[in-house]
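Backbone geometry tokens:
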Amino acid sequence: MNEGKLIVVNGAAACGKTTIALELTAALKKAGINAVYLPEAVRAVLEKRSILGIEGALTRSEQTLVLLRQLEREIRMKRLYEVVVTDNPLFSAVAYGGYSDERMEHELQRASGADLIISVPFLSSEDSGDGVRLEQSEKERLELHMVLDMYLEKHYEGLVMEAVRDASNGGYTDMKHLECAVRAWLMAQE
């Protein structure tokens, strides 16, 4: 079996990345494609910190552990499945972690790169009734995603597909459109 494709669902906090990733994975499976959803590796670290009563930002060693776990999981899953869908890719950890070592960044890029990035548009205030989540999402989009956008532009030019928001569906992503676009992209890769 050839190495599988890594599809990344990318966007700001609370924009529906996980929902889209899960729905896309289910649609691909239903279409007979051997697909899997890969959740974020940071969850295990956060659960351990919670049990131990540790608060605050992740330490540098914890960030590195998360990054290495995500790398190992992406590589392993790409060997087992035709398509791996994730909403927390390795490149997020690299971009957000502020790794300035060009060699490390290059090695991580080479080891595990996205084959397709689905960019989820930011929710407008009309799309969401939750002002707090919207404010948090806007803050993250402006601060963190500026770094990630520059990283994607540098390393993944031409691999980004926009998810389409459907106004008749409450502003949510048109999953039928997205599924068809991804399946067409997969066929073109063969």
About this structure: Residues 131-155 form the longest helix (25 residues). Residues 129 and 187 are 38 Å apart (CA to CA).
